[in-house]
Every structure is written in structure tokens, then in C-alpha cells.
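User: My instructor asked us to take a sequence, write out its structure as C-alpha cells, and then describe one feature of it. I'm not sure where to start. Here is the sequence I was given:
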Amino acid sequence: MARKTSGLAAIFTDEAKVLHAAHKTREAGFQKFDAISPYPIHGMEEACGIKRSSIPYVTFIAGMTGMLSGLLLTWWTSAVNWPINVGGKPFFSLPAFIPIIFELTILFAALCSVGALFYHAGMPKIDPPTIDPDLTCHKFAIFVPENDHGYDVAKLEKMFKDLGADEVKKVAEY
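Assistant: Let's start with the prediction itself. The C-alpha cells for your sequence are:
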């Protein structure tokens, strides 16, 4: 889980302004800042310098593990552990076991994807801090933690005000 930290939050009411502010914050050399919005904003990942998620790779590996587990389970139970000759069919008949293999593939991939999402997001957060209650409705924010390189309250306040922030406030713990 992420540690709580203090910092400075700039609150915006315009989506374009917060996207521009994220670009300028990154250009100013800040790397640990966070953009908060009530919905996804196209281009925000690039503006904040967020790298591609590793969750698709986790999903692929877990799906392959599920597929191989289903294949091994059906082969072991029908051909090795309990071979029963049913109507002269082979002990391991792949078409009959496709549903089991498919379901285990989906099960492993889905559960591991959710687990990876929770891990990367630092969830669950007990009693998460509130910068501004309207950030979940119609406002946007850029949060710069005080442990970021080049953190200076006066410089940041001036930069955010110049970028059109409606409010700039010190956040005790986020």
C-alpha cells in the first residue's frame, strides 16, 4: 500500500486546463505528481509520463497457466489416473475437454488480472484521504508530493495559478 505524503494540490474545473497543467508539471521536472479526475481524460497518461501497465502480461501468463492446467487435469484424469473405455473413443479426446480448458483459462486470467489491479493500485485503501469532495463530480486536480525533486511551494503555487488553477491548497496527507 502506498504511504501517505503531504504536498500541494491544484484544483481545476476545466479538463483542458488540467491536461495542460499536467504537461507543464512534467516539463518542470516533477516525476511523482498525480492527476486526479472523475473520469478518464484522453492524453493524461502521456502528460503524466505513465508507462504501459503490466496487467495485460499478467493476464496472458495466467491464461496460459490456466490453459495448461486444464489440459493437464483432463489428460491426467481421463488417460492416466482413471482410464475408462467409452464406446471405443481414445482415452484423451481433446474436443470433449475444450470447455474445461477454456473455463480454466478464463478463470485464471480473470482472477489474476483483478489481483494484479489491486496490487498496482495499492488497494484496498483504508480511510482514503479527501483533497476535495468535488473531485469525484466535476473538478480535477494535480497533486505534487513534497518529496518530489524540486518541490517549492511558492514556485508551484505561482505555476499553477498561471496555468489557470481555480484553487491551490496544501494537503496534509494524501
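For the description part of your assignment, you could build on this observation: The longest strand covers residues 7-12. Try explaining in your own words what that tells you about the chain.
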